[in-house]
Amino acid sequence: MTFPPRVKRFSRPNVFEIDLGAVARCVRQIRHCIGPAIHFFATLKSNAYGYGLIPAAKAVLASGADALSLVDLEDAIALRRARIEAPILVYAGSVPGKDIVRAVEKYDLIPTLHSEESLAAFARYATRETGVAVKVDIGPERIGVPVEQAVAFVKSIAQHPKLRMHVINAHPSVPGKGSIGDCLDWQYRRFVGICDELEHAGIHVPFRVIASSRILRMTGASMVLNAVDPGAALFSPLAADQPQDRYQPFRSLKSRLIQVKNVSRTEFLDEAPFRIIPNMRIGVIPIGYSDGMNKLHCGEVLVRGERVAILGSPALEYTRVDLTRVPSAAVGDEVVIIGQQNASRIDPEEVMAKQSAARVADLALEVRATIARVYVETSGEPTIAVPYGQKNTNRLKSTSFKA
Ligand SMILES: *Cc1c(COP(=O)(O)O)cnc(C)c1O
Question: For the chain: N or C, fewer Cβ within 10 A?
Answer without folding.
Answer: C
